[in-house]
Please model this.
Amino acid sequence: MLNDIILFSNPERSGFFYGITSTFYIMPNYVNIGKLVATFGVQGEMILKHNLGKKTGLKGMTVFFLEDLPGSFLPYFPLQLKIKNETEIFILIDGIDSKEKASAFLQQRVWVTDDVGKKFAAATASISLLGFIASDNGNDLGEVLEVIEQPHQLMCRIQYGKNDQILIPINEQSLVKIDKRNKKLVLDLPDGLIEAQL
Model:
C-alpha cells in the first residue's frame, strides 16, 4: 500500500507542509534562473540565457525544472553544461537528442530549487532579492517570491497578506535602499499601487 506521496511545490507558495498520516514533507521553493532561448547544432543542445549576474557553467547542477502547467514542475537532467558567454550556457538534456526535440522546449523558463539558485547567483544579481521583505514607508508588505527582469526595471512578486500576491516595480523612483544585513527591500511606492491589485 502506498503510504507516501511526493508533490512538487508551487513557487507561489512557501513553507507549506503536505502530509499523509504522520509523514510530513517540506516542499522546496523554486526560483527562475532564465530560459531556453535557442537550439544549437543538431544533437539537441540548447542555449540557456540566465540572470545569475555572473559567468557560470552551473558546475554540479544535477537537476532543473520546467513548468509543465502553472505550479506543476517536471525535473530534467543536464548531461552537459558549457559556458558560452557571461549570460549564456550551452546545455544538453537527457532524452533530448535532436534539434526537433529541443525546439519544443524553446522559450520555457528554467527553475531550480532556492538553495541551488543562491549557490550560483552573484550577490548583486536580481534573484538575490528572493526572500527579502519588501517595505513601503516603514510598513512591511511581504516576502519577495519572484523577481522578473524587464528592460527598464525589475518587478517583484510579493506575498501580501495570507492570500494575495502583488507586483511591485523596482526602479529609480521606487527604490530607497537594499538592506542586505536585514534582508529588506526599502521602497517608496506610488499611492494606490497596492490597492489597485487587491
